[in-house]
């Protein structure tokens, strides 16, 4: 059986991310505030989720766009040693960083130049200390 989606240098390796949260309302407000976005809430029996903006009509394979979700559940807890996720802080990283502390977070690594633009690392309102921000400016 042939593989339909071969992963190569033109393919996004990341297709989805989840950020664990202890309090979904607080976490949703934090990310909506610092990124100036609206998230969509989804509730199931054992889990609550707040989705980052996405268009379900646009398929990741054709658009290259990925998205993710905040998840509050018994099996998914915030951690200071979890996966590093870099969120899009365009158009300028400093605009997002200026909102972090006011929204209940903390800047751990300030704006830092890399070959692909600028990054910073924050602790979010839930204590996740490996949340990265990235922008070209």
Describe this structure in words.
This protein has one domain (16-135): 2,3-Dihydroxybiphenyl 1,2-Dioxygenase, domain 1, CATH 3.10.180.10. The protein contains 3 helices and 8 strands. The chain has helices spanning 24-35, 60-63, 93-100; strands spanning 16-20, 40-43, 47-51, 67-73, 85-88, 106-114, 117-123, 131-135. Strands 1-4-3-2 form a 4-stranded mixed sheet, covered by helices on one side. Strands 5-8-7-6 form a 4-stranded mixed sheet, covered by helices on one side. The mean pLDDT is 86.
Give the terminus-to-terminus CA distance: 45 Å
Helix content: 10-25%
Describe the biggest sheet? 4 strands, mixed
Give me the strand/helix succession. EHEEHEEHEEE
Beta-strand percentage?
Answer: 25-35%
| Annotated CATH architecture | Roll
What is the total tally of β strands?
Answer: 8
Mean pLDDT value: 86
Broad shape = globular
Number of domains: 1
**CATH topology group:** 2,3-Dihydroxybiphenyl 1,2-Dioxygenase, domain 1
Note the quaternary state here: single chain
List unreliable stretches of 5+ residues: none
Numbering strands along the chain, what is their spatial order in the largest sheet? 1-4-3-2
Name the CATH superfamily classification.
Answer: 2,3-Dihydroxybiphenyl 1,2-Dioxygenase, domain 1
Structural class: alpha/beta
Number of helices: 3
